[in-house]
Amino acid sequence: MDARYKSREIERRSLDVDGLKRSFLEWLVYSVGKDARAATRRDWFHTVALAVRDRLVDRWMDTTRTYYQQDAKRVYYLSLEFLIGRLLTNSLANLGITDQCRQALDRIGLNLDDVVEAEPDAALGNGGLGRLAACFLDSMASEALPGYGYGIRYEFGLFEQRFEHGWQVEYPEQWLQFGNPWEFPRPEVLYPVQFYGRVEEFRDSVGERAYRWVDAERVLAMAYDTPVVGYGGDTINTLRLWSARATRDFNFGHFNDGAYMKAVEQKVLTENLSRVLYPNDATEGGKELRLKQEYFFTSASLQDILRRYLQHHSNFDSLPDKAAIQLNDTHPAIGIAELMRLLVDQHGVTWDKAWDITRATFSYTNHTLLPEALEAWPVRMMERVLPRHMQIIYEINAKFLNRSKARAAGDNARLSRLSLIDERGDRRVRMGNLAFLGSHKVNGVSALHTELMKQTVFADFHAEFPERINNKTNGITPRRWLHQANPPLAALITSRIGNGWIKDLSQIKALAEKADDLVFREEFRRAKRKNKKRLAAYIARQTGVDVQVDSLFDVQVKRMHEYKRQLLNILQAIALYNEMRDNPTVSWVPVTKIFAGKAAPSYHMAKLIIKLINDVAKVVNHDPSVHDNLKIVLLPNYNVTAAEIIMPAADLSEQISTAGMEASGTGNMKLALNGALTIGTLDGANVEIREHVGEDNIFIFGLTAEEVNDLRASGGFNPRDVIASNPSLKRALDMISTGVFSPDDPHRYHPILQALTDGGDHFLVTADFSDYCQAQQAAMDLYRDQEEWTRKAILNTANMGWFSSDRTIMEYATEIWDVHPVKPEHPAETET
Ligand code: GP0
């Protein structure tokens, strides 16, 4: 072997500062093609990413090979969204080479933090659901579980949000524009996926009735693999994302001019399939392209899973022992019909056997009870786009309804609720019902949510299958959300209890005994202050607003949604503003209200609330009479990278959804882990957070889910009465309606006021207002006592260990998937 080549190969593995430095210089020249003098920050990012990538490839292959050789049971996490964010910091930290990399760059005269900033934020998701999938990837790899993520390689991730005159405007987010150093294209991993066409019936070799799907359009799914580095770098799993490719048959040279151009156009249209992520969070658009995206990635993933299985097996009997497939919401639920089709039509498995295999293989996570988010595809669309699947769904349905208890009891109303087809109006396929029926386990994402699932959406299915529903309370990865995002606090924690918490977050409990230690409190505050300074600088850069670092940072960051009630928060801000102006001599606790979040482009009410927050901010921030005691900021373009700056800097965490509506929340966990106190309703995982951190260390207010339910059932709520009896609420609403915040357009907020009054205030903003204001007052009062506040903040951090996604993922592994850790075998690494 060429000596120079050989030495380079060793270099690619070296983890010390010199080796890294030499690799950087070599990569810059030979792969990025730049001279050190001409290199931009982005060039350096690509250089460093490629050099880091080198250092994980061996162990990635070892991991994959070990799974293969042991024929280990794998878990496949099918998700239409993976909100992974940047990967450089994460890869360095999980490989344990952050310091070496920093020093190597130092020697070249570069700062790692600047290089990191050049990486685009991979936003292949909308919010909580997509971020949960990303945390799960991190946890599976860190727990040495043989886990694969499967999804779509969208060319355009979630739109970039800007504010123009206070209104949200969407711009395309082009994360792939300059190339993606983390992904490995696999042009040979290519599966055909079909649409449209028709079904032909025929007799098979033994004379049985059989079906084939003919005259269909064909798209190819091409794989792109991204390594997922577990903590410690031992296990490196795979995230496989599919990209649409037109079949190549159009490319033959026999076209005339016109036909050629048409063929190229057709190719572009076909490849639109994986072009863009749908930006709706928790609402379903009923768009054909969306259905095609769902089927596209699901079908490709299943074909890939079966191919891998067949490397070791010659029939499908043990598929459930070798593969667990988790459906992240109903988006991939068509996979149930698709696996049936593949087994029955393509592999000749009998129906009943195929159904047993399918059910034993799949499990399903529900993420919301909101009716508008429950996917239901028009039968006519499904018949056209996926004709064979429609037949299979009918067949599953007929067999199920025939055997169901409801039928035995002659309960037709219940039978029609259990049906996979909603027969009211234009007929629709209920994907939640399909997912439930085709899975052996169905889980909710917090204790309360799971309970409500049993009582509401899946009450009838729960009666049929009382063992199927189970709870898996969400979690977050401590690597990204504490170790990487919050270096000051992470270092402080490690200085006291060692670094075992990064891998086993339950160890963080040991901090609880430090809550009474004055020195520790001081250091805890210092870490928080450092993070607040960083956020203040970010706010100034992004919005031009100067905020006081020592003010109470009151943070609400999440998608803009009426049920999440950013409106409640901004109304309280207006009330506080009025109080401050009325009582200028009182010494107020300075408060900074920090909002961030995107609205779905078609969600007019959410966009109007954005405009309201910006309008209120403008008035308040420029009013000298509040003496800078109140500032309001709405940060643009909330994403994972912004969250990494915001979470560590928060004092107060707003989790104020209408009780019963937020399935879990995960931002609530990130904030509490970073030492914020929660102000929240008894909704989603807030209930469990209260149990863990203790009720003295959280501000709970508002109606409970049960009370909300009773209130709605009795219909006995008149928001106008509530408003009339609360002067500060009335005043705030009057200011909005008279154009105090929108002098250029006094009627701008009419729809909001309308919703709160004649509209019946569906989200109970007025009903919870007064209780919320009291809780806010309690928070401000406590903040005056910095010692007491810090004590509670420490207790929050110390008691959040259970909310690690490692705990969540191990519960899935043992209680749903039956998959076990597999330690990768590394061949002895020779140095010669
Ligand atoms: C739920 F149904 N969630 C959906 C959806 O379409 N998108 C989405 O992000 C969220 C829930 O709203 C959640 O409560 C939950 O924690 C998360 O899924 C993960 O389970 C808040 O983000």
UniProtKB/TrEMBL annotation:
Full protein name: Alpha-1,4 glucan phosphorylase
Entry EC number(s): 2.4.1.1
Keywords: Carbohydrate metabolism, Glycosyltransferase, Pyridoxal phosphate, Transferase
Role description: Allosteric enzyme that catalyzes the rate-limiting step in glycogen catabolism, the phosphorolytic cleavage of glycogen to produce glucose-1-phosphate, and plays a central role in maintaining cellular and organismal glucose homeostasis. Phosphorylase is an important allosteric enzyme in carbohydrate metabolism. Enzymes from different sources differ in their regulatory mechanisms and in their natural substrates. However, all known phosphorylases share catalytic and structural properties.
Organism per entry: Azospirillum formosense
Keyword tRNA-binding assigned: no
InterPro entries: Glycg_phsphrylas, Glyco_trans_35, Pyridoxal_P_attach_site
Gene symbol of the encoding locus: glgP
Record family assignment: Belongs to the glycogen phosphorylase family.
NCBIfam families the UniProt entry points to: P_ylase (TIGR02093)
UniProt cross-references to Pfam families, sorted A to Z: Phosphorylase
Catalysis: reaction(s): [(1->4)-alpha-D-glucosyl](n) + phosphate = [(1->4)-alpha-D-glucosyl](n-1) + alpha-D-glucose 1-phosphate
Cofactor: pyridoxal 5'-phosphate
Root EC class: transferase
GO MF terms, alphabetically ordered: 1,4-alpha-oligoglucan phosphorylase activity
Domain of life where this protein originates: Bacteria
